[in-house]
Automatic annotation (TrEMBL):
The keyword Acetylation does not apply. Its cofactor is Zn(2+). InterPro entries: MetalloPept_cat_dom_sf, Pept_M54_archaemetzincn. GO terms for molecular function: metal ion binding; metallopeptidase activity. The keyword Protease applies. Keywords: Hydrolase, Metal-binding, Metalloprotease, Protease, Zinc. It comes from Mycena belliarum. This is Archaemetzincin-2. Transmembrane segments: none annotated. Residues 12-54 are annotated as: Disordered. GO terms for biological process: proteolysis.
Length: 448
């Protein structure tokens, strides 16, 4: 079993072949700087004292990752974010994030309960609790109220005169109306039916309370966005202040069927051996190219020495190393994991995606600077490899929008993570935060 002892903060060997050119340190520093006297935000400019950070890693850019497929995706600096006229500012009278719990199912549509259950799941797992997701978002968006959408609760019901076991449409009943939702059979056969994402987002818009900055709708059903999609996991209409996430594909019972490597989820995704294996596997399966042979990254003496250190000394090397030690300290998720461990795994996945989609409601675009919670994702495999935290540039945007401080935000997240010590993601995140707060480095990363 891999122990992830040799880590890399650099992008993979595949990144250059894919055409990804990371912004330089000077460009990253400039991207984190807000010009004085510019912008149209209602809030005062951020403090001149830059937040203090430990090392941050580059995006992995493994084969088929989002940045490998779209290496020229434009970066968004804090100045560009701040000056964006389409961005919704956080105002005192409209500053609350609402979370709508999954809808109940009417008796006339009781068979739709089976739509939430994957056909090939190899384990029965307790789904994420809405209350836990609300608590996580309250910590992540510290400085903004985060509340559960008050009653009346949402309900999925039949649409039309005669219920059908394979309906083209179902209805989502809200306090004021019944919204029509398109459905279809799952293209890959993993679920019985899927709901249309665009229809769910339109329904979410109708749910927005007057004091809402944004609203997140949670659904346990598989969803799709376009006719060509197999599935989707979430989407935000940032300008309309709404987001939807589906927890269906994050079901741990699907991991083997979907080729998800639990052992190399973040922070272990930065394991050098794993990164090299991903690149070699892709090169071997792509016969015509590349003509240039991929080489495993050379292990420097520093890396060899670090691999032999005791856990305490190893953890002191960087926040990433501390996170990996915490990750490794918990029982393996591949060797007969408990039901509680799988439920925690599912919760962590849902929380990370929820925080990402709501970030778009704040006007934060996909990140190309660092490994970051606001990175785009092209697959479920990539999804699990990404960190739960924001990079220095996107954290500066968040703190400016919420009016919170780095210290307060990290303390809130740490308090949440410490309530879930048996969750690999949250245990690693807690160790990362503690190490981050103990450092006094400038906001850059260690690439060696």
């Amino acid at each position: 079993m891999c122990d992830h002892r040799t880590l890399s903060c650099a992008s993979s060997a595949h990144s250059s072949l894919a055409g990804y050119s990371r912004p330089t340190p000077q460009q990253r520093e400039a991207a984190a700087t807000l010009s004085k006297g510019k912008g149209k935000s209602k809030r005062p400019a951020p403090s001149e004292d830059a937040p203090q950070f430990g090392p941050f890693c580059a995006p992995l850019v493994l084969p088929d990752d989002e940045l490998a497929c779209d290496p020229e995706y434009p970066p968004q600096s804090i100045q560009e974010w701040y000056s964006d006229e389409d961005r919704n500012p956080v105002l005192p009278e409209r500053n609350t994030i609402y979370v709508a719990a999954p809808p109940s199912i009417a008796s006339s549509l009781s068979f739709a309960t089976s739509w939430c259950t994957p056909k090939h799941a190899d384990a029965s797992v307790e789904p994420p609790d809405t209350a836990d997701i609300v608590d996580y978002l309250a910590a992540f968006y510290h400085g903004m109220p985060v509340k559960r959408l008050p009653p009346p609760l949402l309900r999925l019901t039949h649409w039309g005169a005669k219920p059908s076991a394979t309906p083209r449409y179902v209805g989502l009943t809200t306090a004021t109306e019944c919204v029509r939702l398109r459905t279809r059979a799952s293209r890959d056969g993993e679920f019985v039916r899927q709901l249309n994402l665009d229809d769910l987002l339109d329904a979410a818009i109708s749910l927005l309370p007057k004091d809402a900055f944004s609203l997140l709708l949670l659904v346990p059903f598989d969803i799709y966005e376009s006719p060509d999609d197999d599935f989707a996991c979430g989407r935000a209409y940032g300008g309309s202040r709404v987001a939807v996430i589906s927890t269906a594909r994050y079901h741990p019972g699907l991991d083997r069927h979907q080729s998800i490597d639990r052992l190399h989820a973040w922070p272990a995704s930065h394991c050098q051996q794993y990164m090299d294996a991903c690149c070699s596997e892709a090169a071997a399966s792509d016969a015509p190219r590349p003509k240039k042979k991929l080489k495993a990254t050379k292990v420097t003496p520093t890396k060899r020495e670090s691999a032999s250190l005791e856990p305490t000394a190893y953890a002191a090397l960087s926040p990433l190393h501390a996170a990996v030690v915490a990750h490794n300290a918990l029982p393996s998720l591949d060797a007969a994991p408990t039901s509680a461990a799988l439920a925690a795994l599912w919760l962590g996945r849902a929380c990370r995606t929820a925080s990402h989609e709501l970030g778009h409601c704040l006007g934060i675009d996909h990140c190309v600077y660092y490994a970051c919670a606001m990175q785009g994702t092209a697959s479920l495999r990539e999804d699990g490899r990404q960190p739960p935290f924001l990079c220095p540039i996107d954290l500066a945007k968040l703190l400016h929008a919420t009016g919170s401080s780095q210290e307060s935000a990290y303390c809130a997240l740490l308090a949440f993570c410490d309530k879930h010590p048996h969750c690999h993601l949250f245990a690693a995140f807690a160790a990362w935060i503690r190490a981050q707060c103990a450092t006094a480095f400038s906001p850059d990363e260690v690439d060696e």
